[in-house]
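tool=predict chain=A
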Amino acid sequence: MALSTARRVPVATYRVQLRKEFPFAALESLLPYLASLGISDCYCSPLFMSAPGSSHGYDVNDYRRINPELGGRAGLERLHATLRAHRMGLLLDFVPNHMGINGPGLLNTWWRDVLANGRRSPHARFFDIDWSSEAGAPAQVLVPILDDHYGRVLEAGRLAIVSDGGALGVAFGDMRFPLSAETQDEIVASAGGGERLDGYLRGLNGVPGQPASFDALDALLARQHYRLAYWKAGAHETNYRRFFAIDSLIGLRMENLEVFQACHALLGRLLDEGVVTGVRIDHVDGLRDPAEYLERLQALAGAAEKPLYVVVEKILAEHESLPPGWAAHGTTGYEFIAQLAGVLVDTSAAAQSTAAAAEFCGETTDFDDVVYEKKRLVLEELFANTVERLAGELTEIARADRRWRDLTRHELAMAVRETMAAHSVYRTYRRPGGNMDARDRRVVEQACAVARGRNPRMAAEPFEFTRAALTGDYPPDGASAVQCENTEAWALDFQQYTGAVMAKAVEDTAFYTFNRFVALNEVGGNPGRFGGAVAAFHAANAERAETMPHALLATATHDTKWGEDARARLHALSELPHDWRVWTAEWRAVNRRHKTMIDGREAPDANEEYRLYQTLLATWPADAAAPDEAFRARLRKHERKAVNEAKRNTTWAQPNERWLEAGDRFIDAILDAESGREFLASFRPQAERLAHLGAMNSLAQLVLKIVSPGVPDFYQGSELWDLSLVDPDNRREVDFTRRQAIAAQVTDVAPAELLRDWRSGAIKLAVTRRLLQFRAEQARLFQEGGYQPMKAQGRFADNVLAFARTRGDATVIAIVPRLASRLGCPPLGLVWENTALAPEPAGGWRDVLTGRNFPGERELRLADVFSELPVAVLERGVSRPNRMACPSR
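tool=predict ok
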């Protein structure tokens, strides 16, 4: 069970992306506005030293310094003082899994020390590096940084030994790589003194066009503790654990206590001083032993008295929960997005949606098959070296046992690859010194069974040995200590990679390939399941109230594929399957002339075109105006990312520029006032209709997020309509001046009037502010209150979702519409006919949003409840303080 108490529980969090263009000072100036919304805690991206100009901060290169581009320690102190003045906390995004290692100057001093001294460096044990090497070869770490093959770069004179501040290093562009001390001494001695060094280096560095002149430099570079290589070699030969498949982010051995202490010393001081009041742990699945890490983090924070508020970035599969005993308050809330989709997507449209996609795209594929295919793809193209290393280590383990020694490396490589591809969750959590628990054992046994089923020509023994090594069933009692240690270490290594494989195959590949209904292609979601049941949503809420009452509830993050309101529009599209089929057939016909023939195929292809129309509907400007160049540029950039991620017609590693340019031309042509006239005439009315329906879904999901058990989290700028696309689009600058102006204007405006002006987004901001202020006033009710599903009666009972939160005599009821397109837009008043709720006891309700009272009726008729707004939050018996209550501390 996750932690249920903390020294401070946020009432509501607001995520901000810190960067050079938005430093601490910018956030500080925003705090009065955020406080007025009802936000209790700023939820900030990483703030430690990262690569110059980093737009995200996840490439930390020094945990001992606050990023000077953000304002440094002094700027953070000023921010802290202003937060305290507004009684607000700071939830900090912390990155324990990896560090940034490349870029101008190689600012990561630990990494520079490793390059200079190799395995002798005291920091070599900080990084997850495989130092094994071929017999007779030096132990080197691969540095895949060159923009061409090593030999070509060398003989073009683009690698050179230079003197920089008295130290000798290898220059490649604006990067400098250190030479070993032995090499530096050798060069100085050979040069015959400092005055002759420049001349010696000129000779050593070779002459372009004379290959033999580079032999000495080549020999010198071969003796270093690293090997410079073409960046494309990284996928197959990198011998350090990366963050997913990013060569510039190296995995840390955070399980090493020395590493933990070195990386967390400054964070510990910030916690002691109260500057940081909670921590969000990035990519917890990358850690070797997440449970141990979380325990150490709580000890660092002095959690003996009361735990530190901690949430973990963890993607839960369907029916999966956090491992029991983790010292965390829950996840960052991706699963809540999928739970919302379960009630806002029309499940009855599944068959029509599947048929429409098959008809348009000319292919029918099961999502599970797509995932398997993409896992195999990324295992072969991005993690080939990992599979080979794990297979080699498992082979050595088998060879030490006469009962298994005849298993071949080829067989075990297949078993490792197929078992990874068959994992149904991101990872399992076997801990050092123990076997797997029953839950994880079932995952591994199922994965091995599925892997065997997909490979009927293979013998069973390789899969059986892999299963036994993973679960701890092997080695048997009586085995040597070395055999036990080696097998356990292998299993722990295996676990650290399955999450990265899943992420790259599913989120970054399958989600751009399986385009039946892209609203479901969301982090934490399952595009193979078309919607869900209201009962499942209630069950998830009830379980969260019991086990993770302080977990974050997200509807948009920096990692989501869709802005929350773009996704809400697409949820509404599920209610119009017949219309969608007609629209796409028409649009395809009028736009075919804008495609380009490439090698006998139309570009973009049908699958890409099908996704593009959904993207356009999701992100079309709310005012329905003609798209400007800024919108077209965003769309072009997004579609280039989508087709590269899909890895069908082009990839990041081998970009097909002809295909990408054809996509650019197609977008420009269909959105041009002249060449796209016929398309736009048909598209605009449908986009307008869907935007209006989507706005109703947006208000519904907003209410559900704020009133459900958990801590509602708001991504920067999403208090107005959020029609963002995936990163980097969702990191672009937010117009906070506009938001503050709207907040000032709507203070005394009636909700019904704001609803009529729905395009401006002011209605969303007003609902957000009123409900968050109410939530802050009633913090204990929302943090500790019980959860009771409510069932409506009447003709449209299936089109309403309602539940109650109770604590003592106080009760709050959330009521929202779902699948309401057939009721009209907005679904107000008499359209609800006889639909009603019957709360017990009857009467005495007040609508938090409109201020209307419902004094004595036995039933709450939705025609009355929804007479002004299509959502309602009713309260009874709550205390009404004169000011916002202080969040829990």
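The two ends are 21 Å apart (CA to CA). The first strand starts at residue 13 and ends at 16.
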